[in-house]
Amino acid sequence: MRRGKPWPILAVALALLAVSLGLLVASHVSSQLQANRQAVWHSFRVADVTRALLSAVQDAETGQRGYILTERDSYLGPYEAAQRQVPLLQRQLGQLLAGNAAQRARAERLQGLVEDKMVELAESLTLSRNQGFAAGRALVQTDRGRELMLAIRGAVEAILSEQQAALGQQVEAADRSQDASLLAALSGIVLSLAAIAAGTLLLLRNNTRLKRAEAALAEKGAVLQATLDHIQDGVAAFDAAGALVACNRQFFTLLDFPHALAKLGTPFSAFLAIDRRREPSVLAAPDRVRGPAGSGQQVSLSQAGRELEVYRNAMPEGGFVVSCIDVTRRAQAEAILRQTQKMEAIGQLTGGVAHDFNNMLQVVSANLEMLGRELGPEHGGRRHLGHAISGVARGARLTAQLLAFARRQPLDPRVIHPGRLVQEMTDLLRRTLGERIAVEAVVAGGLWNTQVDPGQLENALLNLALNARDAMPEGGKLTIEVANAALDEDYAAVHLEVEPGQYVMLAVSDTGLGMPPGVMARVFEPFFTTKEEGHGTGLGLSQVYGFVKQSGGHVKLYSEPGQGTAVKLYLPRSRRAEDLLGGGSLGPVVGGHETILVVEDDAELREAVVEMLQGLGYRVLRAEQAEAALTVLSSGVQVDLLFTDVVMPGPIRTRDLARRAQEMMPGLKVVYTSGYTANAIIHDGRLDEDVQLLSKPYRREDLARHLRRALGAAAPEPGLLAAAALGGGSGEAAGEGGETPIGWPEGAVALVVEDDPLIRMNLVQMVEIMGLTPAEAGKAETALAWLGKNPRPALLITDLTLPGMDGIALAVEARKLHPGLPVMLATGHAEGSLSIPPELADGLGFLGKPFAMLQLERALKALWLKTR
Question: Which residue from 651, 670, 675, 648 is spatially nearest to 659, judged by alpha carbons?
């Protein structure tokens, strides 16, 4: 086999060698020349800065001299300018000479001299201003300034001389480099000729390789185009002339451009012509979309039904890139977040208002009920009293609606069969809506159970039905449909607040007026209503919305003007068996004789509750906060039930109070009450399983039934228990067990002495209910004054602990004014622990605190029988 000639390879090697040598020499020479240029520039720069520094110091001295000699401020201009320039020039000189130790030392010496000179100039100016120009001129005439100036010039000259010598060396080096560069250039010419010959051969060979590279580039371009077509964002690139050089299909889909424009070379003006015809324009106003990467302005394209972010950014080689991102889901998520934050803010506000408002309503309600018991059934004021009680009920419903919308209401969810609940409500809805509204219920077979608060679901259905009735003023048809439903991933992708899964769908449809889009967008907002002023609170549908959301469900509204409205409630499916719902809280109002500890921080509300419980026959203890309640329990007194508010001040939480109370007293029952509960006994909008809650405001009947449900059936007790428990009587009706009421003389007066105004008020009310005419005093001195001016009362009821004179001393003095006066001593101490004077041995009764009306009536009856 014949071997090929090595000449082409040798030529290529020589060419490469020549090029490499030329590049090496050129690089070396270029580096040398660059170093020389930098050194020369550095020398000139040092000289310029040094001279400028000397000139600035001289200008400062000139300004100082002119000012002192002429005594005119206008001559200070050069001095003041030098003051600003000198520090900058000194800093520059220090930086320039920092790399050479000897030069740095000279620069530091020069800087020190300059600073001394500037100090000397400043001293002469200060002396001239403070002591006169003659003193300044005398200082100038000394040799100090001249010597400093001479030293500065010497230092400057030393630096300049050194820089001059360095400059000469650099020029010599530059000349040598120039000779070397000439020799290298000649060598390079020779070698380049050889390289050209070899390069020609290489070009011929590389032509084939270039074609192969073009084919590979085309393949990579196809891969790039496929990549662009598969990304979610729209991209289009235009060169400096405005011609399309790259794009993907998504760009035309998102921005709604014809795909016929997706040809390379299409001018940008073709896109603008289409873009200008729509509103809003995206590309016609580049200031709206121009900006660096990562910035831009969100643009909404109504015709495409999407929320888009469009960016226009410049490319490094000219031209620009327009990119488009579909942010529809993000915009929806942000809208949901804003709605959630608004709901949270309303919930916080509503919670605080509801707590205080319900407390006030409870005080009003309790006192109105007690007033109603005192007024007879034929009293003329009962009509006004009924109106007041109705107002309290409306206020309570309004607060409950606010809490429902804000998802703060305490739910008591049960597993129910929604079809059964709808069928049970159908007759009620027919009676409520009237004959002009046809009501039809459609319940699908095989219906799933759901876990919701049945009472709230009934309220939601009633609210929807009443809204449907108002939308059909001429009559129509209301259809309630219950069926199983599955919300899949596609539905959840459009409604981001929905979790995909199985639901029970409850739809309420009407054939009414329907709603325009503007009303539909606001229909679930609180206080929004299309009714006339005074004909609606705007809280009905918002209450439905809040209840469904709090229950983990979803609400969907469909409506068209003139075509009616359909509201669909999707409630999560429950796989548990249906709960058996009890008979509710109906039944007779029954009291009891157990001991109840009331914990309430609102003083008026606490006293109202205590009075209601005492009227029901219970023995009542009270505490204003958790710490006081634990103190009462630790005293050893037997308590059967803890009735406590949820929201109270103090470091001990209500749940902790209940837990510690039950540890101290096993078997203790706990009933909570609150106008608003946050997280103490409610989690995820639902009551804890072991919690009994009585929401404020409540009526006496609700309180009685709730307590008996917690305590169990009331144990029979002889005496007046039944009468007291039923709130009956002024002391004239016969009690159980054969006991008879006390026969007080006509107009008999009972003097009540108690320093606590609330206790005194309650005691006066009890005495009046028992048929006595009450007189009251807050201390012993007031009581004695009354006894001295009035006839003898039927009896004296006094607290043991009074300010000043105590109850026993008061009884002794009262017996002196009215011998034989019956005295009832109210005390929290044991009877045997008291020291009773002999003059009080007869006609004295004891009443242990705390006491209910039943205990008071028995004690008074025993005292009355003993003194007759």
Answer: 670
* Backbone phi, psi, residue 34, to 5°: -60, -45
* Whole-angstrom distance, CA of residue 244 vs CA of residue 143: 80
Alpha helices in 230-378 (DSSP H): 249-254, 268-275, 286-289, 328-374
Q: What is the pTM of this model?
A: 0.39
Residues 621 and 636: their CA atoms lie apart, in Å, by: 13
What would the pLDDT profile of 643-665 be if each residue is shown by its tens digit? 998 877 888 888 889 889 888 88
State both tokens at 669. Answer: 């029952």
Cα-based angle 835, 839, 840 (whole degrees, multiple of 5): 60
Confidence of residue 357 (pLDDT cuts 50, 70, 90): low
CA distance 459 to 466: 10
Could you give the CA distance from residue 156 to residue 48 in angstroms, rounded to a whole number?
Answer: 11
For position 782, what pLDDT does the model report? Answer: 92
Q: How much of the chain exceeds pLDDT 90, in percent?
A: 6
Which residues 6+ apart lie within 8 Å of 423 measured at CB? 441, 443
Q: How open is the CA angle 555-559-565, to the nearest 5 degrees?
A: 80
**Longest distance between any two alpha carbons in the chain, whole Å:** 158
- List helix spans (H) across 101-143: 101-131, 133-140
Closest CA to 292 of 308, 315, 309: 315
The two tokens of residue 850 are 């705390």
User: At 689, is the secondary structure helix, strand, or coil?
Assistant: coil
Q: What three-state secondary structure class fits 487?
A: strand
What's the CA gap between 267 and 261, in Å, rounded?
Answer: 9
Q: How far, in Å, CA of 293 to CA of 313, rounded?
A: 7
What secondary structure letter does DSSP report for 736? B
Residue type, 639: V
Residue 290 DSSP label: B
Decide the pairing of beta strands 595-599 and 641-645.
Answer: parallel
In degrees, to the nearest 5, what angle opens at C-alpha 135 toward C-alphas 131 and 140?
135
Burial 561-570 (b: 16+ CB within 10 A, else e): eeebbbbbbb
Single-letter amino acid, residue 406: A
Beta partners for residue 840, in sequence order: none
Closest CA relative to residue 444, chosen from 465, 464, 477, 420: 420
Question: How far from the centroid of its chain's Cα atoms is residue 278's Cα?
Answer: 40
Residue 103: how many CA atoms within 13 Å on its side-chain side?
Answer: 21
297 close to 325: Cβ distance less than 8 angstroms: no
How far is the CA of 639 from the CAs of 342, 424, 549, 619, 625, in angstroms?
Answer: 44, 42, 40, 9, 16
SS3 per-residue string spanning 820-862: CCCEEEEECCCHHHCCCCHHHCCCEEEEECCCCHHHHHHHHHH
The pLDDT value recorded for residue 6 is 53
Which residue shows structure tokens 């940008």?
268
Q: Cα–Cα distance between 363 and 369 in angstroms, integer?
A: 10
